Every structure is written in structure tokens, then in C-alpha cells.
Amino acid sequence: MLKDPVEARPTRRYVEKRETILDAAAMRFNRKGVRGTTLSDVAQDVGLSTNSITYYYRKKEDLVVACLLRTIDEMVGIAAQASELPTPGERVAGFIRLFFARLALTATGERPELMSFREIRTLPDSHAEVAFSAYNDMFRRIRQLLRERTPVDAAERSVLSARAHLLLSLATGAMVWIERYEPEDYPKVAESVIDLLLHGIGSRAARWQPTLDTAALLPCLDQPETTQQAFLRAATELLNEQGYRGASADRISARLNLTKGSFYHHNENKDDLIGACFDRMFDVIRSTQTLVENGSGTGWDKLCAVTRALVHYQFSSQGPLLRLTIYGALPEEMRKEKMLTMNRLSARFVRFLVQGMQDGSIRPLDQSIAALQINGMINAAVELRRWVRDASADNAADLFVRPLLMGILSPA
């Protein structure tokens, strides 16, 4: 017998408890990762038994999807508000202002955390299909903010998709670094991000560099790959796709068509291999920054060179670099150590910005926020192919680097 529609509606108490569970779960997933969180962890956070949690969400994956869908709904709402503004520039600015205002509500305790999208790929197929369907719809809505007109052809759609990925990545990336600012300063931070997105980084005299000698800046690409380097590449790919706990010795070995015994012949344990993945990434970034800094050219020339070279590496046979989103699920000691090194390397981008401001090739701007956006762009390039299928080492700079350095609405 079917329930009466009125009786089938959830009660207020049910809805309140469900929202409390989602609040606690999103915080847990952001801190410990999906695989590092159990239903019993969430139950303990909200003072319930595990059985009580399963009354609302039968499996952990159901809870993950519910948290993701709630965040996606909020992002869609923000995009919808921004879409009411008349021009692409105003819509981009509106989207950033509204999103940072939402982050401020989290910082002051008025609203719960938004869940990071970093581990959406770790979901099993049936759950991933639901999450990605909603995510793709959200992405299309954000892409529409950038449109001057409709319809657009395939080439224009590729450009818009790359720039929508940039906009979404830099916005959600702020969830990681925004806490270094006071909540009352979030509106000012938002204006700095808007200024960078709409006006780029170069001065009026700055010109996009059409060519780049990547071989000189990435000498590692000319070296043959050893077995150990192949393990590092495979582990990096799996870490980006499956997170820390999903990148098991079995999966890494299978990616290379090798046995688990071969894994332990070349590596002491998984954590040592993951640590080596970070060290390899740091070496690539550090050596490229140093080669560029010691070369000739203006600060703008050097910034163009280093960003293009690192994005090129993402699409090379030895790429990609590790996603920054992996940090949240690392063991605490490893996380602290690796984040410290990454923050130091990110800060090195400030030197190119300062040199450019001194020689007039880069316009006056907030150097610390600009460095964060540069780092975020390089990091997000690894997923560009998801939105632009023909993205490659040859066109990634024009598709993805140029919109940040020249302005997200600059002519393609």
C-alpha cells in the first residue's frame, strides 16, 4: 500500500538531523578524505550510533554523494544569481563575489563547509554517475557566464570550456587558502581575484609569448624513463585519480603491468613512494623556476616561460604533477612537511611578479594572491582534457595559461 504523499514527507526533525549529518560529513571528508572517513566517524561527530546514520544514508558512498550534491546545488545557485548580470565581465565578478561571501559565512560559523570536489573520482561507478551528472550541469552553467552570445561553434566552445574550468578551479581552490585571511577581509580578497581574472597580470605593454623553448626549461623530458621513474609517474596518476588511500601498491603495479613483488623490489613501502612522488614534483617546479630566474628577460617574460613550461610538463610523457588536493588525505606529518615545501615554491612566483612590477612589464597587483592563482592554474591544468578533449602540450598554454596572464575574457 502506498503512503499518503503528506505522510511521506520528511519531518522537520528528520531534515534537521540529516543536515547536521551532512555538515559533519563534509567537514570530515575535507579533512580526512573519503577513504579516510567512516560512517562511525561521522556518527561520533554528531552523537549518534552508526546504525542511526544508516537510517539516513545506507552506505558511506550515499553520504558522499549527498554532500557533493548539496555543494553543487549551492554553486548552481551562485551561478544562477551571477547569470542575471548583463555582461560576461560583470557575471564573472558577481560569481566570485558571491562565492567568497559564501566562504565568509563558513568562516564565521554561520554556514557549514562546502565539500571539496577533489575525490569525486574515487566514487564507485553507480555513485560517480550521479555526482558527475550534477557536476557537469553545474559546469555548463558556469561556462554560460562567459558567453557573449549563443550559439557558439566547436572551437569557441573549447575556449569557453577551458576558461570555465579555470574560473571554477580558482574559485574552489580558494577553499584551501582563504583561511589565511580574516573573514572581514574576504570581500577585499574577492576584489583582488576579480581584478586578476578580468585584467590579467601583464602591463599594457605586455605581449603574449607565442613560442617557448621547453627543452631548455624541462631537460628531464629528454631523459629515458627508468623503472623507478615509471613507478613515480603511475603513482602520481593514481594519487590524482583515487587519492592517497586509493593509490595502493596493487593498483600502481597493475597500471604498469607489473607484479606487486616488483613494486616492493623497487620501493620499501607505499608512503616512501608517495614521498618520492612529491620530491619529483618539487624538483621539476624548483629546477624550472631556477632556470627561468637565472635567464634573461623581463619579469613578464619569465612568468610566461615558467608557467607555460610547467603546464607543458602536465601533458608530457613524464607528467602529470600531483594535484594539490591530495594533501588533505595525507598522514599528518607527511602533510605538514610537503605543504611547507609547496608553499615555499609557490612563494617563488612572487619574485617574478616583483621583478615585473619593477621593470614595468607587470602591472601593480596583489602579489601574494596572484601567486596563489598562478599555482592554482598550473595545478588545475592536469584536468583540462576532461573539458577540452584535444587539449595537448601544443595548445594548453593558449587555452589555459593565456587566459590567466592576459585576462579570462581576452580574445582567443
TrEMBL record:
DNA-binding stretch(es), residue numbering of this chain: 38-57, 248-267
Gene Ontology terms for molecular function: DNA-binding transcription factor activity; transcription cis-regulatory region binding
Keyword Transcription: yes
Alphabetic keyword roster: DNA-binding, Transcription, Transcription regulation
Domain HTH tetR-type: 15-75, 225-285
Gene3D superfamilies in the record: Homeodomain-like (1.10.10.60), Tetracycline Repressor, domain 2 (1.10.357.10)
InterPro entries documented for this protein: Homeodomain-like_sf, HTH-type_TetR-like_transc_reg, HTH_TetR, KstR2_TetR_C, Tet_transcr_reg_TetR-rel_C_sf
Cross-referenced PANTHER family: HTH-TYPE TRANSCRIPTIONAL REGULATOR BETI, HTH-TYPE TRANSCRIPTIONAL REGULATOR RUTR
Name of the protein: TetR/AcrR family transcriptional regulator
